[in-house]
Amino acid sequence: MQNELRQLQKLIESVRPLSDEDWSAFAGIWKPYSAGRKEVVTPAAQTESYLYFVTKGIQRVYYLDDQDREATLAFMYPPSFGGVVDSLLLGQPSRYYFETLTPSEFLRAPNQELQALMSHRPAIADMVRLGVTQTLSGILERLVEVQCFSSEEKFRNLLRRSPHILQLVPHKYLANYLGIDATNFSKLVNKIKI
């Protein structure tokens, strides 16, 4: 678990470095967890109980409407945080599913312990706030893409942000994430030089 904690510390330092004392307290709440391929870790209607740090595998968060149409909202892969974060931080039932696409390994921190740390250690609360703010900024950028960009522009931006994603995530999920028909997505993959 030491290697995974070093990966977590490196990611934390990119958001907001913590003192040795704060890092030690933060590192102490994480425990290993694993899930198999295509396993729903957090279903809709359940309140998220953990913050996940992805150490292996690929996951997604998706929405399922009343007609069983899926909308893939986000992908997670090492080293990144995962789970249904709005449910976690608001303490409300999730509207989304957190699912593994491949066998996955995580460190996970219970929300109660995370909240206790945030209330007693301002630097940890500030780091979490900054991380959530950075995520919100990315989501707003993605909303602009979804509403204003052509299919090709969305595809090119995805490759610019995550050039390796075509090798990680099945194309049907990428097409869904971009809001592009699977056939058109295949044409874009063949048309655009990567």
TrEMBL record:
Residues 39-120 form the Cyclic nucleotide-binding domain. One of its GO terms (molecular function) is kinase activity. Keywords: Kinase, Transferase. It comes from the Bacteria. Transmembrane segments: none annotated. This is cAMP-binding domain of CRP or a regulatory subunit of cAMP-dependent protein kinases.
